[in-house]
Write a structure and sequence with these properties.
Length: 340
């Protein structure tokens, strides 16, 4: 069954970059040290900041990110602390290197998902994007995690550099025993944003026809194998209504220099909504991203038009052919259950 996941009013998603350091240099990395700093936060600071967002009366979902979060020597302590605080779900996003023996320091019950990033079904394609040896390392990381009883998910960031291998993912996911599959769309930010005007990066995002035909088809094939699939909607149909998550949902993207964004597409700019200073959450002065959320334009998402307008198309009269959805709007495809 495929359905659009409406923005939830009763849950908060906290995307916490506990450090920006990474062992890899992926060609599409969205981390921007000029905007996000290069600190590694101490456990005490992470705990104090996590406390700013948790509220036991609703669902608080925590996603621990980097850089590479397993490079943090105290990731295990951060996980335990977040669980005690009352976060209802905890996910660690990793490139698969699993530093500091993390699989031996936490138990499968301590987290909900260990989420691996793989950007190709073969080493050839993945390693061109993520670096030599990454494919083997990530696959072996998944296998180790599955063997030890961790629930795993896999994130595949689709671009024109790897979409030709997306159809090979159902077999690979099934072989690896992955529980969830996230298809992402490449964002023109971070390193990709740096080169957005260059010929090699101009066409990183796949076109609308390809996205709307191929992504749902592969998602269904994966769901038929019993694996839940989530992917961003990107292109709205004429019957669908545009909504900006910045106005109707609570998502926080926290960086180790204290910046807190509500919209990932704003992360290359000093447009964050809040700053954490002395462990307190302070509203940032205007102009910030919240001023953009309220703008109503025929193309849908304002930030999309500003930073990655290559996915827009216009009719002869100058009106857009379709609207671009909020990048946080997802479609979820769940495996069919057989009635008894
Ligand atoms: S693994 Fe993540 S943080 Fe590290 S370089 Fe790649 S995209 Fe950037
Ligand atoms: S991606 Fe666009 S629609 Fe979504 S929160 Fe950002 S500005 Fe709003």
């Amino acid at each position: 069954m495929s359905e659009t996941v409406a923005f939830s009013k009763n849950s908060v998603n906290v995307f916490f970059h506990i450090l920006t350091k990474c062992n890899l240099t992926c060609t599409h990395c969205y981390i921007n040290p000029g905007q996000h700093g290069n600190n590694t936060l101490s456990v005490d600071t992470v705990t104090a900041w996590l406390n700013l967002f948790v509220n036991k009366t609703r669902n608080d979902n925590l996603i621990l990110l980097g850089g590479e979060p397993t490079l943090h020597p105290d990731l295990d302590k951060i996980v335990i602390s977040a669980r005690k605080m009352g976060y209802s779900s905890i996910t660690i996003d990793t490139n698969g290197y699993l530093f500091h023996d993390i699989l031996n320091k936490i138990k499968p019950d301590d987290i909900d998902f260990l989420s691996f990033s793989l950007d190709g079904a073969t080493a050839e394609t993945n390693d061109k994007i993520r670096g030599n040896g990454c494919y083997d390392q990530c696959v072996s990381g998944i296998q180790n995690a599955v063997e030890r009883g961790f629930k795993t998910s896999l994130i595949f960031t689709v671009s024109n550099e790897n979409i030709h291998e997306l159809h090979m993912m159902p077999a690979l996911l099934s072989h690896l025993g992955v529980n969830r599959f996230f298809i992402q769309v490449i964002g023109i930010r971070g390193k990709s944003g740096d080169k957005s005007g260059t010929p090699e990066n101009k066409k990183l995002q796949v076109d609308r026809n390809t996205w709307m035909s191929l992504i749902p088809m592969v998602a269904k094939q994966v769901a038929d194998l019993g694996i839940i699939v989530t992917y961003p909607k990107v292109f709205l149909k004429s019957t669908e209504i545009f909504e900006c998550a910045g106005l109707v949902a609570e998502n926080y993207f926290i960086f180790p220099n204290g910046r807190v964004y509500r919209c990932p597409l704003c992360e290359d700019f000093s447009l964050h909504s809040f700053e954490i200073r002395d462990n307190a959450l302070i509203e940032k002065e205007k102009i910030n991203e919240q001023d953009l959320f309220a703008l109503n334009i025929p193309e849908g998402c304002v930030m999309n038009k500003l930073v990655q307008s290559g996915n827009l198309s216009y009719k002869d009269d100058g009106t857009p052919e379709y609207q671009i959805a909020c990048c946080l709007l997802k479609e979820e495809v769940t495996p069919r259950t057989t009635a008894l």
